[in-house]
């Protein structure tokens, strides 16, 4: 049984809880408190609304090309330390550099540059569809955690059979599905939850059998994972952190 907390303790934990950084026991205690305390529940609702408005309305600025060139020069071959021989017992790692954060930024830029031009536009549509559904409280048209109820619901609404599976045992609960519109066509949208975070999975059929490995990107503050598998396109979007969203995407990618 989780320990009780007072309002002061609850409010001190709201930010960490919203970001998915609390351990299981304090999360359960906070959830019990929020369920019984209208004042703290209202405070948390305001925090979520503020976070959503920042993601949706805040201006975004692209990093200048000069920054990219500066990072590339920093990590060019001539500036890298030489790898030591096995006899010396050590090998050099890029993550040991003080500028590791810059390397991560460079990798982030590279992901975007390697994506086809159409993917960036489609990523914008995915984020817009996700935020529109959240703001209109229209995340699901069929509300169920039973995959055997959600899957047949799509039979008369889209011209394909989307794979539907519940991952509650892995921490990702199916909450239902809806029909949405992306890339000028009707698509299946599956909604999942991980604690307070909502995940949308958009699925539609492909003409080509070519498969694409998962790629991760970020747009307007939302994390996205996209891949093509078994003649289906998958686009996964959420404000969930990249590690957990990547774990969920792997479950989708590896499903039978």
Structure description:
The structure is a single chain. The protein has 256 residues and is an alpha+beta fold. The chain folds into 2 domains: 51 residues; 147 residues, MucB/RseB, C-terminal domain (Phosphorylase Kinase, domain 1). 43% of the residues lie in helices and 21% in strands. The chain has 8 helices and 7 strands. It has a 7-stranded antiparallel β-sheet, with helices on both faces. A hairpin with a 2-residue loop joins strand 2 and strand 3. Helix 1 runs parallel beside helix 3 and helix 2 packs across helix 3. The longest helix has 20 residues. The radius of gyration is 21 Å and the shape is globular. The two termini are 37 Å apart.
Number of strands: 7
The description of the largest β-sheet is: 7 strands, antiparallel
The proportion of residues forming helix, as a percent range, comes to 40-55%
Number of helices: 8
CATH class of the largest domain: Alpha Beta
CATH superfamily of the largest domain: MucB/RseB, C-terminal domain
Strand content: 15-25%
SSE arrangement, N to C:
HHHHHHEHEEEEEEH
Gap from first CA to last CA: 37 Å
Average pLDDT value?
79
